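Budget justification aside, the reviewers requested a transparent look at the raw inputs and outputs of the sequence design task funded under Objective 1. We therefore reproduce one unedited record. The lines immediately below are the structure tokens for a 288-residue chain.
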């Protein structure tokens, strides 16, 4: 009997796109059935802290808190390069030092960078879909938009600051901005873990190479909450050649993120991302 492995991801266009080669049966694991769950990214962060899923999408900023129970996967990653979440406010307003801001979750990468840059801001957390309206209604002075929200928002709003600019200032270079990835439960036997990771790598690669076929299918089935043009733009940003496998510069960016979090007191220990990967070389040794 095949094992059922829970795979949780967000309902955002990039995650749906990267996962659905598995859902449509284009790619399958060797001895398991993947059961997918879609939920808001901060809900998934909180679920990972509780160990609820076998494989889960997370904000990269969460990972140091779950490193003992979950391995970091090398695929289905989203980085910003010259773009990313946006701190927005009503047009013509000026923010005080202790302005009230809505963020999409305590463990999101944008929250970590925001808290470093604006230590006096008063933070409230809410679902990212509610942030724009909260700013428009005056419930908060500003908010950080993420996911597809960065592409389409009210003309009554303006960008106060790009999280990308905060990242560049803090990181001191041209490293890509680490946003989200996936992790896998460490209690899963290693040979299975390697197979599951390879399945996900293939799924992201197949989706990327067959975007012209897959994207219209997702739109036709109503699985994506944006129109075709916005989906195309969004996939250009967050589901592309750089999403298939972590690169050396992406590892460097992750390590810089964790260094910043440690330096500013958010993490107890300084970690290196490569120390927490699944040792895929085990498979080669096992088969030799």
């Amino acid at each position: 009997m095949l094992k059922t492995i829970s795979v949780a991801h967000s309902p955002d266009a990039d995650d749906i796109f990267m996962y659905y080669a598995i859902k449509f049966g284009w790619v399958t694991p060797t001895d398991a059935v993947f059961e997918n769950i879609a939920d808001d990214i901060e809900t998934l962060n909180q679920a990972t802290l509780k160990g609820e899923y076998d494989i889960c999408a997370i904000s990269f900023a969460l990972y140091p808190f779950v490193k003992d129970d979950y391995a970091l996967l090398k695929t289905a990653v989203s980085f910003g390069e010259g773009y990313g979440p946006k701190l927005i406010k009503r047009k013509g307003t000026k923010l005080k030092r202790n302005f009230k801001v809505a963020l999409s979750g305590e463990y999101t990468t944008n929250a970590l960078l925001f808290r470093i840059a604006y230590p006096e801001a008063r933070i409230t957390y809410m679902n990212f879909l509610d942030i724009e309206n909260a700013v428009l209604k005056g419930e908060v002075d500003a908010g950080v938009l993420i996911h597809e929200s960065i592409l389409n928002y009210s003309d009554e709003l303006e960008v106060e600051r790009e999280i990308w600019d905060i990242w560049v200032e803090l990181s001191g270079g041209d490293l890509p901005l680490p946003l989200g990835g996936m992790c896998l439960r460490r209690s899963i036997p290693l040979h299975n873990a390697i197979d599951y990771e390879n399945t996900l790598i293939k799924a992201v690669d197949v989706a990327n190479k067959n975007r012209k076929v897959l994207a219209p299918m997702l739109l036709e089935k109503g699985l994506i909450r944006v129109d075709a043009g916005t989906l195309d733009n969004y996939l250009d940003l967050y589901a592309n050649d750089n999403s298939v496998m972590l690169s050396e510069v992406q590892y460097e960016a992750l390590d810089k993120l964790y260094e910043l979090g440690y330096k500013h007191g958010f993490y107890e220990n300084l970690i290196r991302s490569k120390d927490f990967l699944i040792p895929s070389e085990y498979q080669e040794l096992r088969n030799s």
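The chain has a mean pLDDT of 92. The domain at 86-171 is CATH 3.40.190.10 (D-Maltodextrin-Binding Protein; domain 2). Computational costs for records of this kind are itemized in the attached budget.
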